[in-house]
Amino acid sequence: MSDERLNASIRMEALAPQLADAAAAWAVRLGLPQGGEAQFALQLGEAGLQLVELGPQAPGPVRVDFVEGAVAHRRLFGGGSGQMIAKAVGVQPGVRPRVLDATAGLGRDAFVLASLGCAVTLIERQPLIAALLEDGLARALADREVGPIAAQMRLMTGNAIELMTGWQGEPPQVIYLDPMFPHRDKSALVKKEMRLFRPFVGDDLDAPALLAAALALASHRVVVKRPRKAPVIDGPKPGFALEGKSSRYDIYPKKTLGKG
């Protein structure tokens, strides 16, 4: 989570003439030029909205797709409620907590939780990523099989700390955080998503404030996903952790789920 300023040049473009009006509408919403020199492009095509790096040897485009690809494979074959993320947020027989994913990114973890029956609110601060999410959710809602899952997901765009501090209505039972970690190992930047997003997102240097706001709002627990060997976020220490091969879930319990 960095600020909303774009730290790289980007333009909006339509990949087909019939999409020109819709692309122009996105350009106005996001304050992007159409045409001109740029390092990146937000493109609208028949398959939806996608972000792509321009120039030679650039990785392929990134879009949010909840219907096909890796997300669909994880939904069908990922292990269901036995997944570590499900255990971390407290999914158990008869218990499907209301979850706020305050660092939504491409929405993959939120979709997993929604597919398990959790109502999930997503917050994404970076406008470009939020646009990809909005487009992906709209396409998912139109799919007969995935639509009921997408209907469990609600997207909010804005600063998560501010939104949590000024939260109105019933608080989420569980708040899930997956802050961008300051990577020094170049091998961690191989993924094209990381390469595309870092110029816009940066590292979550305000992670301690994010954790503090989450702890003040969540009614039952806060869950923080970290690289397995990364230090805990500055602040209160987690009550316990679940550790996998590459990731770790630090869990800050406040109240037992399923006990009211």
Give an overview of the whole structure.
There is one protein chain. With 260 residues, the chain is of the alpha/beta class. The protein folds into 2 domains: 10-53, no CATH class; 69-253, Vaccinia Virus protein VP39 (Rossmann fold, 3-Layer(aba) Sandwich), CATH 3.40.50.150. Helices cover 31% and strands 20% of the residues. The protein contains 9 helices and 10 strands. The strands form 2 sheets. Strands 6-5-4-7-8-10-9 form a 7-stranded mixed β-sheet, with helices on both faces. A 3-stranded mixed β-sheet has the order 1-2-3. Mean pLDDT is 87; it is low at 1-5 and 183-190.
Q: How many H/I helices?
A: 9
CATH superfamily of the largest domain: Vaccinia Virus protein VP39
Q: What is the averaged pLDDT score? A: 87
| Overall shape | globular
CATH topology (fold) name of the largest domain = Rossmann fold
The top level CATH class name of the largest domain:
Alpha Beta
Helical/strand content category: alpha/beta
Distance between the termini: 32 Å
Helix proportion: 25-40%
The CATH level-2 architecture of the largest domain is identified as 3-Layer(aba) Sandwich
